[in-house]
Design goal:
A hairpin with a 2-residue loop joins strand 1 (about 85-90) and strand 2. The longest helix has 11 residues, at about 5-15. The protein has one domain (about 5-110): lambda repressor-like DNA-binding domains (434 Repressor (Amino-terminal Domain)), CATH 1.10.260. The protein has helices spanning about 5-15, 20-30, 35-40, 50-60; strands at about 85-90, 90-95, 110. The chain starts with 6 loop residues before the first helix and ends in a 22-residue tail after the last strand. The chain is globular. Helix 1 (about 5-15) crosses helix 3. Strands 1-2-3 form a three-stranded antiparallel beta sheet, with no helix packed on it. With about 130 residues, the chain is of the alpha+beta class. It is built from four helices and three strands; from the N terminus they run ααααβββ.
Amino acid sequence: MAEAPNVGARVRELREERGLSLRALAELCGISPNTVSLIERGASSPSVDTLQNLARGLEIPIVTFFETGDTEARLVLTLSYDRVQSEAPGMKIEHLGRGLAGHPFASFLITMEPGASTAESPMEHTGAEWVYCL
């Protein structure tokens, strides 16, 4: 299995690249500075909703948090044991598009426990979604 991405370190890296303070990023994203700090330190695993807010504030696709620096390819085969995975409360998120950095389409397999939710209210974001639900 591929190594799980360090989302917190990636958030810090992207924030610092933009010259933003922790407080400024929190304000842009509509989340508390404490939440950003906990995520950056790896003390908290962000929900999909929080990741979407961070992506919107940083003006990046959400997939950017899961990029591992693999070389880009036109065709990607991601075997089940080689998927980049992370977990959020009540769900497991597997990135299916390794090697597709910078592409506008991101593929994820999200396995949710009964009663789990990605957010308290519907999310809005730029781009498109394709959902296949079993």
